[in-house]
Amino acid sequence: MLERSEWYDIARDTNWTPSYVSQEALFPPEMGDPYGIPTEEWETFDEPYKVSYREYVNIQREKDSAAYSVKAALARSKFHDEADEGWACVLKLHYGAVALTEYQACQFQARMSRFGPSPAMRNMSVYGMLDELRHTQLQLFFPHELVHRDRQYDWAHEAQHSKNWAVLGGRHAMDDIMMTRDAITSSVMVSFAFETALTNLQMIGLSTDAANLGDHTFANLITSIQSDEARHAQLGTPTIEIMIRNGRKKEAQQAMDIALWRVWRLFSITVGIPMDYYIPLEQRHMSFKEFMHEWVINQWERQVQDLGLERPWYWDIFLLDIDNHHHCQQGGIWSWRPTVWWNPPGAVGPKEREWLEEKYPGWNESYGSYWDVITNNLLQGHEEKTHPQCIPIICNMCQIPISHRPGPEWGARAYQREYGERRYNFCTEVCRWIFDTDPERYKDHETIVDRMYSGEIDPPTLENVLKYMGIGVISEGGRDGHDYGWVEGFRAQAAE
Amino acid sequence: MSGDAVARNNAVGPVLRAGEVADAVVEALEEDNPGKEFTVEDRVAYVRAETEGECVVRAETVARVLGRPFKIAELEVNLSSFSGRIETTDDTMRFYFEKRL
Q: Is A248 in a helix, a strand, or coil?
């Protein structure tokens, strides 16, 4: 039999000269390449990670049978009966945020497989499309057996069909980078910024903690998924090289900068909070920050340099955000716990605080001061005082509450922009910059809070807002996952 | 906080799901890349093997270490990620950087 390399180049060369329609009608620029890079240039696209269809089918079969056999073998274990609610939160959050986002990714790959200007790109993204379909199916099927035990697992399937505030944030970002861009721009955004930089955190970083906890089904599942990503993410590299060679470095850079930030804001919640708060202290292998340094600061940023792009202009803001954003949102999500589909534990007892201080020096005098007030209220039996009475200000880009490191001075501010009829609020310079790159694109979207004032949620009573977000409809909303057990360590300390 | 926290390294190599293939690949890497020092970090569910600038995994060597037939394409089952850039041939995977820092 011929070796792959002996036939590969001929087999994937499926470009032809259309005679019934124009080239432009066959590959509309707004769907394929809006930059007008010549076809001959795209024909030099050489994907670095090659696979034949025969190999693909064999390998994927092996991956799938391994993932399903591990699940079947462990289905009778008592793992979920005995697992900490913190870990259940990791799973509920993961599946709700990820399962159907994979299906969006499937559509993104499908767009490249049809409209990609390079035949090699079209070929590789067929595998990418099948990969993402596999991920969707796995991550709908695996949580399904848990729904009978706890209705909150149903968000795996329901979340993306809901208008929960957290889902609005995810959907806004994914619609922006995956669903509404041409094949080339979205390849830079998704294949390179999203899949090469950040999915590693969710799909590999989290597997370490999963294995420590004994959830081998989940550890095996997510690392199997990431082995697909490692291959199809390589679509981004030749795309960027061809853009740079053809005078489009600026556009590639901007696409990468927008996408990294958008996905980062989400991942600091879906991975950052779990790693530093939800996973029981004894099973934490490294902090979120340490994982970020391993995967993004060391591994990904080095690839950016090798390709000939620059690190994003907001790098200093990004590094500061790695130290802060998920700590802010742990405080926010816990405080507004009835609005989410998992039961976030506060999980800031004396030992956890010691660990946080070690990993994030200064945590105690900043974030700790926020939790001091909550802890004292709980110790004095004033649970009702731990529920905020006001509505947060939501960023008009990332859809996440605007926040800042607490302490003696609270530096929270909204970065504002007047555009058209209204004023927009942003959490950072970066989210405002993204808006400024194309205000017409973003101007009509309403945050969850905008919807309370615009009449979309009418009347905007607490009951109506929760119902609008799917709370009490799909499942009950969240409560403290440890029923405030984490404050007992302080009571014991006080007694001594 | 300083903007200096960027990668000043040339570390390349595979990130593998922990298990017998990962162990075999690490052994094969050391054999097929003479004179290279590898650092191997064990993260419970995965193993990160890295060296300076460039390294190659050969299917033949992995097969010998495993004691069974092994095609390079099968490495994908266990290759969750990698640092550096990748190049695949009929029987090797190479990890490398074009620019050295």
A: coil
- A25 CB-contact burial (10 Å; exposed 0-12 / middle 13-18 / buried 19+): exposed
Distances (CA, A) of A482 to A92, A184, B49: 16, 46, 38
Sort out which chain A residues have CB atoms less than 8 A from B53's CB and list them.
none
A154 neighbors A475 (Cβ within 8 angstroms): yes
The CATH code for residues B11-96 is: 3.90.56.10
Q: Which residues pair with A423 in a beta bridge?
A: A418
Total Cβ atoms within 10 A of residue A458:
11
Best of A194, A275, A298, A320 to mutate (most B CBs within 10 Å, chain B) = A298
Which positions in chain A touch B9 (Cβ < 8 Å)?
298, 302
Give the span between the Cα atoms of B37 and A444, in whole angstroms. 55
Cβ neighbours of residue A418 closer than 8 Å, sequence gap 6 or more: A424
- Measured CA to CA, the distance from residue A1 to residue A4 in angstroms comes to 9
Contact list in A for residue B101 (CB cut-off 8 A) is: 302, 305
What ipTM was predicted for this assembly?
A: 0.91
Residue A457 banded pLDDT, cuts 50, 70, 90: very high
How is chain B split into domains, by residue range? 11-96
Q: Which residues of B touch A229 (CB under 8 A)?
A: 81
Can you tell me the mean pLDDT for B15-31? 96
Which of B5, B15, B78 is closest, CB to CB, to A319?
B5
Alpha-helical segments (H) within A75-144: 79-82, 85-115, 119-144
Of B44, B76, B85, Cβ closest to residue A306: B85
Tell me whether residues A319 and B3 touch, CB distance under 8 A: yes
Q: In 10 A of CB A384, how many CB atoms?
A: 8
Give residue-wise pLDDT tens across range A314-344: 999 999 999 999 999 999 999 999 999 999 9
